[in-house]
Amino acid sequence: MGTCLKEIARDAVLICLFRSISNNEVSFHGMIRWQIAHKRIELTADLKYRGRVTYIYFSPEGTLETLNACGRSFTRFIADFGGIKQWKVDNNNKVHDILWNQAIELWGFPVWS
Question: What share of the chain is helix, strand, coil (3-state, %, to 5)?
Answer without folding.
Answer: 50, 30, 20
